[in-house]
């Protein structure tokens, strides 16, 4: 497995590179955003670990550029910021996971393995379908009733999770843990606001509503 590491701090990069090597990964390193973006577009990688605060081009911009270029590799965001807002930004820009510094090397390796497993499973099924709604896991194209629907990365991840669990009621807690992989304060309205945005695009323009709220528990797509 080939991993791209984009990290400007020499000491942190050295620790990560050594840990990945011991875990059996082949790793390529870039010390700034521009070089990292160039390397990501120039070679094939199975996953990327990208720091946010990078010289020349920040990590969020690098991720946006990679997604805009159509690269689907799993991306784990590294950041010294541990706020909910920063985590949401990283995921909405196109990251698949977020790890705050300082972190355990063992946890980073575990998260990389988890993302690689998820990518492998996704490759087995290329199109999810519920009624007249389809989601192409390869092109990330979402279509309902013949109409293309544009989704932000976080909206896409939420819809994918709901479609993979079609007909099954999923709680807000479960959504937070499986879509964002974080244990946010359940008193926040993060899930509600994202579901509301998704409904505006998936349900509002159509007579048949697919996303249903189960009061006191969560949501079901059916």
UniProtKB/TrEMBL annotation:
<feature type="DNA-binding region" description="OmpR/PhoB-type">
    <location>
        <begin position="125"/>
        <end position="222"/>
    </location>
</feature>
<dbReference type="InterPro" id="IPR001789">
    <property type="entry name" value="Sig_transdc_resp-reg_receiver"/>
</dbReference>
<dbReference type="InterPro" id="IPR036388">
    <property type="entry name" value="WH-like_DNA-bd_sf"/>
</dbReference>
<dbReference type="GO" id="GO:0006355">
    <property type="term" value="P:regulation of DNA-templated transcription"/>
</dbReference>
<feature type="domain" description="Response regulatory">
    <location>
        <begin position="2"/>
        <end position="116"/>
    </location>
</feature>
<dbReference type="GO" id="GO:0005829">
    <property type="term" value="C:cytosol"/>
</dbReference>
<dbReference type="Pfam" id="PF00072">
    <property type="entry name" value="Response_reg"/>
</dbReference>
<feature type="modified residue" description="4-aspartylphosphate">
    <location>
        <position position="51"/>
    </location>
</feature>
<protein>
    <submittedName>
        <fullName>DNA-binding response OmpR family regulator</fullName>
    </submittedName>
</protein>
<dbReference type="GO" id="GO:0000156">
    <property type="term" value="F:phosphorelay response regulator activity"/>
</dbReference>
<feature type="domain" description="OmpR/PhoB-type">
    <location>
        <begin position="125"/>
        <end position="222"/>
    </location>
</feature>
<dbReference type="InterPro" id="IPR001867">
    <property type="entry name" value="OmpR/PhoB-type_DNA-bd"/>
</dbReference>
<keyword id="KW-0804">Transcription</keyword>
<keyword id="KW-0805">Transcription regulation</keyword>
<keyword id="KW-0597">Phosphoprotein</keyword>
<dbReference type="GO" id="GO:0032993">
    <property type="term" value="C:protein-DNA complex"/>
</dbReference>
<keyword id="KW-0902">Two-component regulatory system</keyword>
<dbReference type="InterPro" id="IPR011006">
    <property type="entry name" value="CheY-like_superfamily"/>
</dbReference>
<dbReference type="Pfam" id="PF00486">
    <property type="entry name" value="Trans_reg_C"/>
</dbReference>
<keyword id="KW-0238">DNA-binding</keyword>
<dbReference type="GO" id="GO:0000976">
    <property type="term" value="F:transcription cis-regulatory region binding"/>
</dbReference>
<dbReference type="InterPro" id="IPR039420">
    <property type="entry name" value="WalR-like"/>
</dbReference>
